[in-house]
Structures are given as C-alpha cells and as structure tokens.
C-alpha cells in the first residue's frame, strides 16, 4: 500500500508551490531539506505524526503536520508574512492525492521566535488533518 504520509507531503508541496502569495515571498524556496547556503526567506517541511483512525469501512489516519518558515531580516515582520501565507495556503485547502484524500486540513497554531543564533527568525506552523484511503 502507498504511504499516506508521503502522498500527503507531496500534496502539501504541490499546494504550497502553486500558492501565489507564498511564491511572492519565497519564490520556489520550499524544501524538505534546505541546501547549504539556502537564501532566506524559505519554508521547510517539518515533522509529521500519523495516528491510526480507521473507520469500519476504510483505512484512515489523523495527521499532525509541522512546517517551518525562516528569515534573517531584522525583526519578525518577514517571517510572520511567510508563516501567514503558509497558513492561508493550506487552511481548508483541497489536497488532491492518488490513493488517499485529506478530508479537511486546518491550521492549528503558529509560533514565532528568534533562533539561538540571534539572527534568524523562525516560525513553526502546525496543521491537523484527517486522511482517508480512497476505496479501490
């Protein structure tokens, strides 16, 4: 069986790269793992947790997703703009997948803080969704 977590990651990436408000801020700098010397600002796909939530008639999971926004502009304005665009792109969005469907995705919270280096602003944007297997 295909991986619901991996298909969901692909759907997130497709949605984020197609979202014009986010592209205006980060261009195509949305990474699973940022390359050395990546230009700021950028977004990274973060941690995920998949919990079994089967129903009587089909497989289902509750997915908790974390994305990160990064900036080195002074203060928080830029990283907050990027985080807001990420939240807007995904909250209640349709996320087409081949073998699964995201019943609903909701933005749970955004936390913004300064990283330990003192120069990087960091936002942690969390989402929650239910993923169901599409019956064959």
Descriptors for this entry?
5-stranded mixed sheet, single chain, STM4215-like, alpha+beta, 136 residues
Description:
By secondary structure, this protein is α+β, with helices and mostly antiparallel strands. It has one domain: STM4215-like (2-Layer Sandwich), CATH 3.30.2000.30. The protein has three helices and five strands, in the order H-H-E-E-E-H-E-E. The protein has a five-stranded mixed beta sheet with strand order 1-2-3-5-4. Strand 2 and strand 3 form a beta hairpin. Helix 2 runs antiparallel to helix 3. The longest helix has 15 residues. It is elongated, with a radius of gyration of 16 Å. The termini are close together. The model has no long low-confidence stretch (mean pLDDT 94).
Write a compact overview of the structure shown.
The chain is of the alpha+beta class and 136 residues long. 26% of the residues lie in helices and 39% in strands.
**Total number of beta strands:** 5
Strand content: 35-45%
Radius of gyration: 16 Å
Shape-level CATH architecture: 2-Layer Sandwich
In N-to-C order, the SSE pattern is: HHEEEHEE
Name the structural class: alpha+beta
Helix content: 25-40%
Assembly type of the chains comes to single chain
Outline type: elongated
- CATH fold node name: STM4215-like
Distance between the termini: 12 Å
How would you write the strand order of the largest sheet? 1-2-3-5-4
Mean pLDDT across every amino acid position: 94
């Amino acid at each position: 069986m295909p991986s619901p977590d991996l298909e969901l990651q692909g759907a997130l990436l497709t949605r984020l790269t197609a979202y014009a408000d986010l592209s205006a801020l980060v261009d195509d700098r949305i990474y699973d793992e940022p390359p050395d010397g990546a230009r700021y600002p950028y977004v990274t796909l973060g941690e995920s947790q998949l919990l079994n939530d089967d129903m009587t008639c089909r497989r289902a999971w509750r997915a908790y997703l974390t994305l990160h926004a990064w900036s080195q502009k002074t203060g928080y304005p830029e990283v907050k703009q990027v985080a807001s665009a990420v939240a807007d792109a995904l909250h209640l969005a349709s996320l087409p997948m081949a073998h699964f469907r995201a019943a609903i995705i909701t933005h749970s919270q955004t936390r913004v803080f300064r990283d330990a280096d003192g120069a990087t602003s960091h936002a942690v944007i969390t989402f929650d969704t239910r993923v169901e297997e599409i019956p064959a």
